Amino acid sequence: MQQPARPQAAASADCRYQRSMGNLIKVLTRDIDNNGGNFFLDFENAQPSLAETDVWDEVNKVLTEAQVVLEDLQTYRGAGEEIRQAIQSPGVAGVQEKAWSAVLPLVVKLKTFYEFSQKLESALRRLLDVLTSAGSSPTQHLEQKQALARQFAHILHFTLRFDELKMTNPAIQNDFSYYRRTISRMRINNLSTEEGSEVNNELANRMSLFYADATPMLKTLSDATTKFVSDNPDVPIENTTHCLSTMASVCKVMLETPEYRSRFTSEETVLFCLRVMVGVIILYDHVHPAGAFVKTSNID
């Protein structure tokens, strides 16, 4: 069955996105040219070898849940109207109860998103353990362990997609702020907070910090990558930075090489490569001592 044409606005947005990524592609030019990432990384179909299966299975569970998280975030509508009415009618018990009943399940959902960020962090560290290990160069790791490299790419892609959706949905922070204000008021008035007990004060503080960031998932991955380097002093930092810059190199080469690009079975893979490149450059910027965005990086 023929697929419906994409809306002009969506196509235009993709074009703007790709143009805006143009300069970022050049960020790691010097490192990229020296990394020799001139091979095709099968982001669409790479499958794990027997030796990779344990790690792949563990990370795949997280990536499967990631799809559910994205679907839930895409359909997150918030309780804006109920909250507005509750603020306008502070003395009407029924209105207050309606707003509280609307916000509670949303806070549980926000808790699920936050807890998933911790699972994503663990999955990233598992992949970094393998892809930065001694014995092979970053290029060899990525070329020979393509299924794990593909999972790494999917984590980056999910991260940027999640943060894009979060940034365009102010209801998330509004709902959680209302929840915290209401809990605080109930405690001051010695009212029962049993209904809101799934999110204790300590967890609420951590969630507040998480959602206060413009790009919470990307910050989680950036912090996790930096912590991975500091927690593994026996692994040279170059192993991690070379892994990241090589991944950027691979994406760059595949996008610029007609032979490789023609092997993509979907145009969506082009946007996927661009998203992965953006994510990996930001991780590189956090981990590399000099960062990615220095004067010598040739950014226009």
Characteristics:
300 residues; 0% strand; mainly alpha
Q: What helical percentage do the residues reach?
A: over 70%
The count of β-strands is: 0
Cα-atom Rg, whole angstroms? 22 Å
Instruction: List the total number of helices.
Output: 13
Task: Give the percentage of residues in beta strands.
Answer: under 5%
- Give a quick account of the main beta sheet: strands, pairing sense, barrel closure: none
In N-to-C order, the SSE pattern is: HHHHHHHHHHHHH
Describe the protein in words:
The protein is an all-alpha fold and 300 residues long. The chain has helices at 8-21, 29-35, 53-74, 80-88, 93-131, 138-144, 146-167, 171-188, 201-212, 216-231, 237-256, 258-261, 268-287. Residues 1-6 and 16-35 have low confidence and may be disordered. 34% of the residues are buried. It is elongated. Helix content is 70%, strand content 0%. The longest helix is centred in the middle third of the chain and has 39 residues, at 93-131. It has 13 helices and no strands.
What's a concise summary of this model?
The protein is an all-alpha fold. The chain contains 13 helices and no strands.
SSE topology:
Blueprint: H1 8-21, H2 29-35, H3 53-74, H4 80-88, H5 93-131, H6 138-144, H7 146-167, H8 171-188, H9 201-212, H10 216-231, H11 237-256, H12 258-261, H13 268-287
Helix pairs in contact: 2-11, 3-5, 3-7, 4-5, 5-7, 5-8, 5-10, 6-11, 7-10, 7-13, 8-9, 10-13, 11-13
